[in-house]
Specification:
With 417 residues, this protein is an alpha/beta fold. It contains 15 helices and eight strands. The chain is globular, with a radius of gyration of 23 Å.
């Protein structure tokens, strides 16, 4: 039987320094001005003084992050390989994949099998010719002021390489992680653009534009969206629940029902990782149906429709993670309202939506390097390996969140305590 086309096959990086230099100029003089994003980099000396082969770990709150880290690498004179989601390599009939490979990108299956990806990343750190750049959050959540849980794989990768180096007689060779915080701030007045976004969504949902404080209008749109989703999926909300209780209820319902149906059991993992696992399973099932010979066209179409419906539910569960509890209520800055409105519009329109294109500055703070050899004794000791991975993961996440909080407090009077 003919095999279905692979959507998980590993794609290695094939970096070309000439191509990377060219694309950096394109990024600086075309892509960033077109996106209306400028870059303010702090502490570039930290990266300039380090030899190649470090692990660079930025937060990942915005779709402009790729442009920003490309500019960071240009300014510090570094070359890095990076992980990118496997499905992105197939966009534009595979042209995107070729460009990413020449830029230093290699594929990772979020929620799937990654042995080749992990070995490739290890080899990068061991050979020390290029840096390795990884976003430990693994996804863009559009939560610029809040670092979402880091995946433990980054810490485990660094500790594994350090442990292998010691066993191979290279214990003096450091394995260094450099945390990087990216914080965006609007430089122009974004309020008119937010008002237009809210008005368009109000017209779609309520049939009229509403008046009043922007936060109240955003909240009303969110409540209406929740009510319609609950009705669509046959859920009834308890009157005592908050909006975020209802979001979590929808997320729980979608994940658990799909996991029981397709994976046989409910998993105890971060909700986004569970959703990604389901999405990968469903995409593979859709591909397998295309070449299954014992189905009529009508049966194939019906089963494909069922799988795609459930795929949409898994994707909705993944997106729900980005609606963090009280994110806007606690501090209704223009940036937070813009992020929330963009996510609401994405849910309502059912398509990718960009943030308002008002001039923004990306404040990039390079943190103090972490030599993971300081964690190695506990990592190699019996019974403390998992705890050590989680401690390093937590230290990385906390360090980047602290840098973002400091950037807020120092440079933006709207958000000072």
């Amino acid at each position: 039987m003919r095999q279905p086309p692979s959507i998980t096959g590993f794609r290695p990086a094939r970096p070309s320094r000439i191509f990377i230099r060219l694309m950096r100029l394109v990024n600086r003089f075309y892509a960033m001005p077109r996106a209306r994003v400028s870059c303010e980099v702090r502490e570039t000396s930290t990266l300039r003084r380090l030899p190649p082969g470090v692990l660079i770990t930025p937060n990942h709150s915005d779709f402009a992050d790729a442009m920003v880290v490309t500019e960071l690498m240009r300014r510090t004179g570094r070359f890095a390989t990076f992980m990118a989601t496997r499905e992105n390599f197939d966009v534009n009939q595979g042209l995107n994949g070729l460009v990413m490979q020449w830029m230093g990108g290699f594929s990772v299956n979020r929620g799937g099998e990654n042995a080749k990806c992990q070995q490739f990343a290890k080899d990068i750190l061991k050979r020390r010719r290029y840096d390795l750049l990884v976003f430990p959050e693994g996804e863009v959540y559009l939560l610029n002021d809040l670092v979402m849980p880091f995946k433990p794989g980054v810490a485990m990768l660094a500790l594994d390489v350090a442990s292998e180096n010691r066993r191979e007689g290279h214990s003096a060779r450091p394995i260094v992680i450099v945390p990087v915080a990216i914080k965006y701030r609007y430089l122009g007045d974004v309020t008119p653009a937010l008002d237009r976004m809210a008005a368009d969504l109000e017209a779609a949902y309520f049939g009229e534009r509403r008046t009043g404080p922007l936060y109240d209008r955003i909240y009303a749109i969110g409540v209406e969206l929740l009510g319609r989703k609950e009705e669509e999926w046959g859920l009834r909300a308890d009157p005592a629940w908050t909006v975020y209780d209802r979001v979590h209820r929808i997320q729980k319902f979608l994940l658990e029902s799909l996991e029981r149906r397709y994976l046989g059991r409910v998993r105890d993992e971060f909700p986004f990782d569970r959703a990604r696992r389901l999405m990968l399973h469903l995409l593979e099932a859709v591909d397998a149906l295309r070449v299954q010979p014992d189905l009529s066209e009508a049966e194939r179409a019906a089963r494909t429709a069922d799988l795609r419906r459930d795929l949409e539910r898994a994707e909705a569960a993944a997106r729900s993670v980005s609606f963090a509890d009280d994110y806007v209520l606690n501090r209704p800055t223009p940036e937070r309202m813009a992020e929330t409105l963009t996510k609401l519009e994405r849910e309502i329109r059912g398509r990718y939506v960009e943030l308002p294109k008002v001039r923004r500055s990306a404040i990039v703070t390079v943190g103090e390097p972490i030599d993971v050899r300081g964690y190695l004794a506990a990592y190699d000791a019996r019974g403390t390996r998992k705890e050590t991975v989680l401690r390093l993961t937590r230290d990385l996440q906390t360090g980047i969140q602290t840098m973002i909080d400091a950037a807020n407090a120092a440079g933006d009077p709207r958000v000072r305590a």
